[in-house]
Design goal:
This protein is α/β, with parallel strands linked by helices. It is 42% helix and 23% strand.
């Protein structure tokens, strides 16, 4: 799968942009705050119906404007595809595929798989468990519709239960009805996450060695699921877990146990990565995670996802940068979008790229096509 053309109107600081892309390497050069990352966020938004940065829909509209529009042409499984995303202030967003609007945006997730590596990835290591759960959900949902449906149903039940707790309602029958609906999907969420983490750990470990060198330290990922706790029993029952926590939850007025509290433990030579990893090791780790995510989605969907590398070279030495680029420009990867502030890095990319590429200069939301000789 690759993105052929993108048109943007009033997206963040981009007033108008009309871009035709190379099927392999696309590079964007410019200072910070010029719009490079905003372009990648627009591509991400078309695939996942939300901003990678976590911005609300209203914040994606250019300041002073009342609407934003993104239109993209893809080649997917050998056929032409067109997506149109529109948002107007005060109205719900509209996403159309081939001119037909989706009834539910969740139907779109996974059809145009995407992987984005960005400076914010450090939150996967340094941040709270919420960051790693969001990552798990984003990746697994692109490959497993049953998981996405289970997640939606679980979160709906969780919100109902928390509403009762906040209201101070004490009614066992009400709680049991809601908890049964949550329990009906919790085991599948748990199993899918556990299997995914095991699979990703193996793949990411190989990529870390490939980037850092064969003699480098070893990384690990392990799943810490709430249904593995003794209170859930051998049958991993969310009903048991919630029942044992009911009195505590009523006191604090929110649900403190369940899949919404799951986490991933990241290690470096068996030690917690967040405490022992240097900046370069952390950047290498998160890059390995993103490349492993790419492999997972490729195998699960049969499509080569779009790979977006936003300022990925920062805090890495030249040797690791070169190893990354040799990996992603090889036959195992498809279309790539790269941003950087450093022309030397981009020239290095060109030197290692045998296929076609396109290069743009980015300034104040405007994109100017360059040649390899431009300075």
């Amino acid at each position: 799968m690759h993105l052929d053309h993108l048109s943007l109107t009033n997206f963040k600081n981009i007033s108008e942009a009309r871009l035709d892309f190379s099927p392999k390497i696309n590079c964007f050069l410019g200072n910070n705050g010029m719009g490079k990352s905003n372009l990648l966020d627009a591509i991400f938004y078309l695939s996942f119906c939300r901003s990678f940065s976590g911005m609300t829909d209203a914040m994606l509209m250019k300041r002073g404007e009342d609407f934003t529009m993104a239109k993209a042409s893809y080649t997917r499984r050998g056929a032409d595809e067109e997506l149109t995303l529109g948002m107007a202030r005060g109205k719900r967003k509209s996403l159309k595929r081939g001119g037909k609007e989706y009834n539910r945006l969740s139907e779109h997730i996974g059809l145009f798989p995407i992987v984005m590596a960005a400076p914010q990835d450090i939150d996967l290591i340094r941040g709270a468990g919420e960051e790693r759960r969001r990552w798990m959900n984003m990746v697994i949902s692109q490959s497993d519709k049953r998981y996405l449906d289970a997640l939606i149903r679980y979160n709906a039940g969780l919100e109902q239960r928390n509403r009762l707790l906040r209201a101070g309602i004490v009614d066992n029958m009400l709680y049991e009805a809601i908890e049964r609906s949550m329990d009906a999907v919790a085991r599948y969420i748990h199993q899918a996450r556990s299997e995914w983490v095991d699979n990703l750990s193996r793949i990411a470990s190989g990529y870390y060695k490939a980037i850092a060198g064969d003699e480098a330290e070893s990384i690990g990922l392990s799943f810490r699921g709430s249904l593995d706790s003794p209170e859930a029993g051998e049958e991993k029952s969310l009903l048991k877990l919630l029942d044992s926590a009911r009195r505590h939850d009523e006191a604090v007025r929110h649900t403190g146990v369940g899949p919404h509290r799951d986490d991933i433990i990241l290690t470096l030579d068996g030690m917690p990565m967040r405490r022992t990893g240097s900046q370069g090791q952390c950047k290498t780790f998160t890059t390995a995670l993103r490349l492993a995510q790419y492999d997972f989605l490729h195998e699960a969907t049969g499509l080569r996802p779009l790979l977006l590398l936003d300022d990925v070279f920062d805090k890495l030495d030249s040797t690791r940068v070169e190893r990354i680029m040799k990996l992603v420009t090889g036959e195992d990867f498809g279309q790539i979008f790269v941003t950087d502030t450093n022309r030397d890095h981009l020239d290095e990319i060109m030197r290692h790229t045998a296929g076609s590429y396109t290069l743009w200069s980015v300034e104040n939301g405007r994109f100017t096509k360059m040649t390899a000789q431009d300075s």
